[in-house]
Each structure stands twice: as C-alpha cells, then as structure tokens.
Amino acid sequence: MEGEFSQSLTPPVSPSALDHYCDSAPSLPSCFTCAYEQGREEAGRFSSHGYISRGVLKRLLLKLDPAPADFEGDTVDIFDFPWVTETALVESTKLLFGLLRQKVLKLEMLVQSSSHDFGQASSLHYEAEELRQQCVLFLSYVKVFLYRFLEPSQSLEEGPVHPYKDLESQLPSVLVEELFGITLLIGRLKNLPANVQSAFTILHQGKLFPPSWQLLHLHLDIHWSVLEILHLLEQRMTGQIVYAHQFVNLTGETLTNISLLEDQVNNLLCDLIGLAMNKYNKVRPTEILKTNHYHCLCTKELWILLIHFLEHRSKTLHTQPFWSYVNTLIQTVLKGVPSGDRDPGLPGHCNEPEGFTWWLLTHLAQLGMHNRNGVIQQKNQLEDNWAFAIELLKSSCDPKRATQEEQVRMVVHCCLSLSLIWGPNVSAVTTLWEYYNKNLNGSFTVPWLGVSGLGSISRTPLCLLQQAKSCCSPASVSSSIHTQLYRSANSFHMFLRILALHLSQEHAGGAPWRQIKGRLYSKFHQRRMTELSETGLLHFLLLFLVMAQCAELRDVASRACDLLAMLPADSTPPAMRSLHWRGQLALVLLYLEKGLDCGALAEQLAVYFSQTAREFYLKTTEPSRKLALWVPLSSYLEGVSEVFETSPSLMLFRGEAFKRRLWTCVFPCQQKCRASGLPLIPSYFFSFRRVQQRCNQPPHTTAESPGWAPLPSVAKERHQAVASTLWSHFFPFLCSMRLSQTPPSQFADAAAGFTLLALDMPGSAPQKLQPHPIQSIMQSFGWDEMLHPLLVTHYLNHLLQNGELVSWVSSGPGSGSAQALCVRAWMRCVLQQYLHKCQDAPDSRAGRNLDEQLAELTRQVFQLPEVESVLQKAGLHSAAVREPKPALALFIKAVGRWYCELQVLAERSSMVSRALEYVGDILKYIKPYLLNKSREGLQLSYWVVGCLVKHWSHLLATTKAQQLLFRIVDVLLLPHALLQQDSGAHTQMLSALKDSLPLFLQGLSAAVGVSQSQGAYVKQQLHSVINQYLSRFLPATPSMGAVVNHPVLLAACESNITPQGERLRRSILQVLRDNFLQFKGHAPPPRLAAVLSFLLELLKRNNDTDPSLLTTPLPLVLRCLMLVNEPQVKRLSTEVTQLIVERCTASAGEQPCEHTISILRAFVEENEGVYDQQVYNVLEVVAVLHPSTVTALIPFLSLSLRKTESKRGLGKNSSLRNGYKKLLGLLGESGQAEMISLEED
C-alpha cells in the first residue's frame, strides 16, 4: 500500500485550505437500499435513494451527466481527504482504488467482528453506513469524471508530452485494470458468506441495519457501478477497445473493457438466477405467481437496471439483447453445460428445471413492463421471448413425458401470464391445443388441492355460459384473481383464456380466427364425438362457447350443433344428454345477448325435448328408465327458465310448440316430477310481464328492436294464447297442491305469477275466478287459513313488493277487506310459525327461511296504507320494530288505542268489525299448540292473546266482540283440563299461562268496568280466573320468591293508581276473603301463612287509600289474629292489620276511620261471650297501632262487657274486667276515666 501512496501526484490539500477549496459538498449518491419508506410498498415505488428513482438509469441511457448537481466545486472530499476534482482520478487512480479496497476490507472485517449485542447496534450501523457511503461516493465520482473530464487520446505527435497528458492517456487502461481488480476483490454474489447472504431476508421495517446488510448492498452497488463505468468508458472512447496492458503482460490473457463488461454481465445474471433458483426450491405450486424471483426490492431494481441496460446496448451498439443472455444461462439449467464451454457457475441442483424456467421467464417478463422510471406500463417495455418459450412449451407438453396436471397447470398459468404481457402467440395456442385435444376427457384435477382443485359441471345453461365468459375476459396479470388462478381453475380453463386472448386481438381483422379455425374444427368428427366422456363433452362445450363469444357466433354455433347431433341418441347417457342440452341452451342465451334470432336453435332443442318426453310418457317405459330420463328433462326445464329470464321476447317458444312439447311432458308426470317444472313458470311470468310492458310502450325508433320482433298486435295475440295455456294446464295443478304441507320452494313464485297475470290480463283468467280473479287467487294462495305459513309469507312477499298490486289492494274493489285479510294472514303466520319448525332443530334451513320470509312480510304489511293509518292515528311509530313478534304487539296496541280515542258510535262499531276481521278465528290458529303442547308455540300464543285482551279490553267488552272474549276465557284461561288439580300433563300450558296471566287479568279487569250487557258475567269470570290461578301458583308455605313473582300479584301492582288497577285489586281481595281466609268452624284455612304473605305483599306494593277496598279482608284477618297461635301467622296477621289501619287512618285524617270502627264493632259483637279475652287481645294490638280507633269503641265495649256479665248472672267477672282494664290502660285518659267508671259498678 505504501507503493500506491508514493505515486500520488496530488497530495491531500492542507486542512487550513479546506473551506477555500471545497466549494460544495456532494449530496448523498444513489445506492441500493430497501430500508422502509412510508407508502412506498403500497404505491409500488422504488427507494427514493435508488438508481431508478433518482434518474441514474435514464441519464445513463440518454448520455447525460450521471450526477449533474454533484462535484461542481474545485475540490471533492473522498475517503476523508480533499482532492482536486478535475485531476484526482488521473493523477491518483491506483491510490483512490486502493483506498476503495481498504474501505471494502474494513467493512468486511466489521462484519466478521460484529456481534449480536443490541447495545452496539447503533454504532455498528452508523460506522458501516459511513464506510459504504464513502465507497459509493467514490464510484459516483468516477462516473462523473469520465463523463466530464476524460478526453479520448489523439494520435501521437512528435515532441515532448506533458506528464498529465501521458497519465490521462493511460487512464482507460488503468481503469479497466482497477475495475477488474475490484471485481476480483469482492467476488461474485453467489460466493458471499451465508451470514452476508442472509441479509436478503432481513425485515426492513427498522432504521438500524447490521454491517452484513451494508456489505451486501455495497456489493450490489459495486457490481452495477462497474457496468456503468465500463459503459461510460466505451462511450467516451467512441468505440475504441481499451486493453488492460498489465494483465496482458503478466498473464498473456487479453482483458479489454468489452470482455470485462461481458463477463460482469454474465456473472451478475448468473448470480441473480442462482439466487432465484434457491428461492424457487421453496416455492409452492399454488404460489408460483405470488412469489417473486427476487429477494428484496434492491435485487428487483437491479434486474430492471440490467434489462434496460442490455436492451439499450443491443439497440445502439448491436450487442446481445437481454433475453439472449438469459436464454443462454437457462439452457445450462435445462440441459447442462455443453462440453468445452466455461461453466457459468449456476447452482448444481434444481428441483424442477422446467418449472423454474417458466417461473423465471414469467417474472422477468413482468419486470419488463417497467419503464426507465420504474413505473409499470401497459405496453411492454421489453421484447418478447416467444421463440424460447414455444420450444420450452413443446418440451413441457410432450405426450411421451406423461406430465401431471399440477405441472401442466403451472406451465399453462405461466403461458397465460406471458400472453397477457407479450400478447398472444398462435404457435403457443396450437401447441397447447394439440395437448388438450388428446386429453379432452381428462379431469385436469390436482388431488392434493382438495375440493378447490376439482372441476365442476355447471348445473344450468347460464352457469355454463358464465363459466365460458369468465375465460373470455382474463384478469390482469398483477391482479389477485390471476395469481390465485392455480387454485380456482384447471389447466384447460387457462388454455381457454389463452385462446380467447388470441381470438380477441384488436385490429387483427379476423386473422387470428382464420389461423386457428381449421386446427380446432378438424379434430372433431363422428368417431371423436362418440369417444367423449361427460367431462370431455363439458370441455367441448366450453371450447365452442369461448369461440362463439370471441369469434363468429353463427358459424361456431352451427358447427357445434352439427357435431352435437352426431351423439348417438340411444346410447348417450342421460347425464350427457342433459349436458348437451345445457350447452345448446347456453348458445341460445348467447344469441339472445347478441340480439340474434335463435328460432332455429330453439326448434332443434324442442325436437330433442319432444322425443325424450314422448319416451318418458309411454306406459311401456320402465320406471328406472323414466327416472333416468327425468334428469335431462328437468335440466331442460331449468334451462328454459333461465332463457325466459333473459329473453327480450316470447318468440323463443311459440304458441303451439310451447304447449305441445312442454306440457305434454310435464302434466302427465307424477306430482314430484311435475313440481320440478315449477321453476319454469315464475321465470316465464317474469319474462312475460317484461315483454308485455315493452309492447305496451310506444315505439321510439325501428332501429331499437331487431327485425324479427313481432308487431304489437301479433305479440298481443301470442301473449293471450300463452296465458290461456298457462291457465288451462298449470293453474289447476297449482290449486291441487296449495294445501300441501311440504310446498316446493317455487310454488309461491308460480302462484304470485298467476296473480300478476290476472292483474295484467284479467280477461284471460278462467270463468270460475271471475268477476274478481285477483281476489279469488289471493284467497286460494294467501288468505286461506289452511295454507302453510311458508307458502303464504313467500306468496304475499312477492305480491306486496309489486307497486301495481299494492295499489289494487289499496283502492280496488273490496280494498279495505283485502288489506285486512293480508293483515290476518300475517298474524296467522306469526302465530303458527312454530307449527312447522322442527322441535329438535329450530334453526334448520326451513326454519330460517320462514323467519326471513316473516320478517320481510312484517315490513311489507306495515307499509300497507291501512296499517300506516292505524299506527299514525294511534301515535305509534314502526321504524324501530323489525321482528315479527314485537311488531304484532305494536299493531295490536295501535288498534286498541285508536278505538279508545274514537267518540262517534258508528266509527267505534266499524272499528270493532275491522278489528275482528284482523284477528279472524285466532283461537283456531293456536289450537294445534294446545294439542301438541309445543313450548315455544304456547308461549307465543298466550303472549299474543294476552296482549289482545289487555289492549283491546274496551273493544272486546262490546256486544259484537264479547263472544270472542268469552271463548278466550273458556279455551285459554279456564279450560276443563286445567281445572283438574291432579292433572300433570299440562306443564307447558301452565308455564306459558303463568308468564302471560298479568296481561289477561289486566284486560279482564278493564272489560269489567266498560261492559254493559254482560258486566256481571265478565266479573264472575274474572273472579274465577283469579281464584283458579291464585291457588294454582300459591306455594304451600310462604316462599318469598314464589309470592313476589306470583302472576296475580304482578298483574295487580302499579306505580300510579288507575281505576282498572283498583278494580282488579278489589276483585283479588274479594277472592281472598271469600275463598282463602274463611274458617271452617275453628279450623283455619289451608296455606294460611302463604295467603297472608301474598295479601301483605299486595298491600305493600300498591298505594291504595280507599278504606272500602283496604278493609275488605280485615274481619277475617282479625279472626286469624284471634284464633291462630302459630307465630308466623300471628306476625303476618299483625303486619296486615297494622298496614290496613294505618292506610285507613291516613285517609280519614284526624278523625277515626268509620270503616275500621264499624268492622271492629262487628268483630266484637260476633265474638262477645265466646272469645271475650281473645277479642281484648286483638284490640290491644289495634290499640298499640292506633289508640284513637279503639278509644271510639269504649262505650260500646263497656256496654258489651256489662251485657255479657248480665247474661251469665254471676255478677262481676274479674277475669274479663282485668282484660278490659288492660286494654283501657293503653287508651290514655279516656281509658282511665272508663276504668274509674267500672270501679263504681
């Protein structure tokens, strides 16, 4: 190294002159980096510090200054020393390159000595980064120097030459030597240590990187800079070859700038391909296009730099293009190194050389779409490589190799990607067709992909056509749909995409079709068609549908029909016949889409159908044969349904042909087979109404409709004929199935279609439906109470979505009744929803379907004008109610509230009639639940009817509706079975009744107050219900939980006193008095403690102040207090007595309560002479609570005492008088005065 310094003619400038000479410091030079930059990956941009983003590549190719803003000063700071900008490289070439080698070696030593200590990570990062920036800055200076200051040497002149000129003339040769030396120093990428190569996989989210990462990217910088420098040198030397004299003299080898550049390109490409090969060995087949061949963005950028660099040299200097270099290297992967050639040094092992080649070609082609600015362009920036790809494709599709589908799928996937990038190639199409023609019956499945990799037979013509169309519009090469195609499509589908690309070339004038037409048609003939399996026939149909979509439709369809006609009718399996018909119907759909007359195709299909239907109808046909024939027949019906949905007119199946061929098959069938024709009818009705509406519109221009479209009068006549056919043939079948408990899913659609047909063409309906066909049909399929709820909900949802029919329901004849019947049908479906749900699996598919239909019907019913009017007048809003059950409760509440607000008698009477029309025979709807004891059904039924009784109490109390109220009480509240105390078979019913009993009691109580003719009977029924269920749900012993949650107690509790609430509590107290507190002689009533606990809770939870109500149970409570010595009864009786006396006294004000005094007086009279002492004990309890009440009784008590003594005739009774005196002692002054009076007796 000392020798290198000794030759320097430009010693470092004095530090004191640094500021004077360094006019401007260069900015950070361009370099490879994949450090994280926000938004870069999402936008697909390269690093802002890279060669592409900074325009280095563009300036190189345009022969512009490599760094126009840098190195403008007189001196430049390189390797921490200032140098004269214009002479440093000439005068100190070896010194500067020696310093470069020093920095590289120092960075390598830093990598070797670095540890995993996080404490040193920051210092190591900045030290390594500084070393790398110094090296990159020097290489940038070399490029700038060559561009700005190097002058090509002129012819030698005699005379002395300036030393600088001599050094300048030697610079190109020395530069080549130094560049060669630095490439030897750093070696090739493949030879880097493993710890350095591992830096390719470092996550680049942080800002600190290990020295190995800096060293690796410095290698990339040097490799690319060597190519840049050599290219600039070649430009500056104007084509002169530069020889490295030292190496010629020492080794005898010829080293030139051209040979060094070629070696550098080959070595660099070889190393990059080797890195890609190592990565490919870990790539799964399903991720071929998702996994790139480069390890990081830096290697991606290097690939793009090489592509544009080599393509530019090829065009300007006539050197090899990029693909020539790559093809040569890939050939060594495929076939090995030819004898005598130098080994490029590729890895020796590759799992699948051909697969790797396809993968690499595809991803390199994608990189070729980037322009010089790194932006992806639609137009390919790189010439195609089809010549090499075609040879590779022929090798991959060689029939002798028996390639598996997983390899073929990957090959075709890559081939499709290349077609999208480079444009289609006819040789690729023909090569692939030769392969698939021989394997047309293959399934093309990959076993380890599972279900996702299996081919599927399209069930309908539309699905078949859509599958073909999906092949005609392949997604872009960078889309996720395309990259996932390996999983979602087999190789044949990918081939169809390639074929579609070829046939759809713009500005080709039909040439692609003419190129391929003969090759495709010639492969199919009679023998070939008979050899097709079901899968092969599917592939045949997809092939011709793709050709029909992309090429000449009429020609392809005619050829396809001719070939399909070659299938033997007798020996073709029903499944293949079904597929055959679906294929032709798909062509019909394509004809309709293009606006072409499909009459001939439809007629041919009708002939096939008629022949099969005739065989199906024959009585001599075996049942198994009929079952097999039904497969194509039902498939045909489904296909015709789809055709009707897309048909612009009804010309497809004209009048007599339609009736003769379709109905001849459908209607003699058994019910199950006939039901399979149901999907056809809704589709036909949909098409029928669309066409009829179009015919009713005035024509705008003749150019808008095809020439084969019929005149309006002719179309109307045909429509009438078809409508008559439907009414006469299919409507009776629907009527026969309407009460089925398992209606087909399309049954309601067909019924709705007939209803709309009657709306559009009422005259076409049969005579038995006249004069109001719509009402008759809706009665049969929507309002009949015997219909299945799923059928009704589906049917009404169809109709109520139709604005014209809703207008008829709102304003047509009997519109009010029609709306009420729709509401009744909705209420019945809500109530009966659990009749048809499996008890073990309520979330079954049928159950979910009914739930969805009910929710939709609820929404539709609440949009009926009459329902909206009821809610509006009641001041209620339905916006927040979505579920059927709360919606039904809201509607019931709205009707009841509106009735209560009506004042005119006629309006109230009309409203009662309409309300009864809403509910219908509601008890009939819920009767099945009472029989089968369905828990959910009983809960719903009792809750809904309870809401009805509560909110319609005033309405049900009228003469018109009271019979419904009485039936509700008899059937739900007081049925004979429930009155049997020993019956244990009605647990579910009692559970449901217990939850809803408060609603019933509150409603009955309100009805008692407003009923005029039958008020006494309603009150009697109310008492019976209270008596029955107060006893039924009352525990034997007072349990707090059972008492406080007793349904009768819950019904009677209210925060604010209302007349109906007070009336209910009075009834409950009367029932308690008459049935639960009566003594039988001296025996107390049963469950007395529980009864008293209930009574106490009832009084506590209400703030009643009416003494007549409060004192209803008081006499019997006093009797309990007097005769029962059980502590719990004593306590409860005392608390009840205290509560009653306090409430009564509070209501009476300062004076004693007369009700209380009269009851106490009666109590004393009833028990005087028998329980005198016990009476005084009871009065003592009252005296303690409220002395004034007992004080008012003193005269009466003294008189009663004297009468008792007189009757006995024994004089003064000291024991009685002592008990009485004890009571008087609690009464203050009045008591003392009375005691003095007694002493005087």
UniProtKB/TrEMBL annotation:
<dbReference type="Pfam" id="PF14910">
    <property type="entry name" value="MMS22L_N"/>
</dbReference>
<dbReference type="Pfam" id="PF14911">
    <property type="entry name" value="MMS22L_C"/>
</dbReference>
<keyword id="KW-0158">Chromosome</keyword>
<keyword id="KW-0227">DNA damage</keyword>
<dbReference type="GO" id="GO:0006325">
    <property type="term" value="P:chromatin organization"/>
</dbReference>
<dbReference type="InterPro" id="IPR042320">
    <property type="entry name" value="MMS22-like"/>
</dbReference>
<comment type="function">
    <text>Component of the MMS22L-TONSL complex, a complex that promotes homologous recombination-mediated repair of double-strand breaks (DSBs) at stalled or collapsed replication forks. The MMS22L-TONSL complex is required to maintain genome integrity during DNA replication. It mediates the assembly of RAD51 filaments on single-stranded DNA (ssDNA): the MMS22L-TONSL complex is recruited to DSBs following histone replacement by histone chaperones and eviction of the replication protein A complex (RPA/RP-A) from DSBs.</text>
</comment>
<feature type="domain" description="Protein MMS22-like N-terminal">
    <location>
        <begin position="29"/>
        <end position="740"/>
    </location>
</feature>
<dbReference type="InterPro" id="IPR029424">
    <property type="entry name" value="MMS22L_C"/>
</dbReference>
<protein>
    <recommendedName>
        <fullName>Protein MMS22-like</fullName>
    </recommendedName>
</protein>
<dbReference type="InterPro" id="IPR029425">
    <property type="entry name" value="MMS22L_N"/>
</dbReference>
<dbReference type="GO" id="GO:0000724">
    <property type="term" value="P:double-strand break repair via homologous recombination"/>
</dbReference>
<dbReference type="GO" id="GO:0031297">
    <property type="term" value="P:replication fork processing"/>
</dbReference>
<comment type="similarity">
    <text>Belongs to the MMS22 family. MMS22L subfamily.</text>
</comment>
<dbReference type="GO" id="GO:0043596">
    <property type="term" value="C:nuclear replication fork"/>
</dbReference>
<keyword id="KW-0156">Chromatin regulator</keyword>
<keyword id="KW-0234">DNA repair</keyword>
<feature type="domain" description="MMS22-like C-terminal">
    <location>
        <begin position="852"/>
        <end position="1227"/>
    </location>
</feature>
<dbReference type="InterPro" id="IPR016024">
    <property type="entry name" value="ARM-type_fold"/>
</dbReference>
<keyword id="KW-0539">Nucleus</keyword>
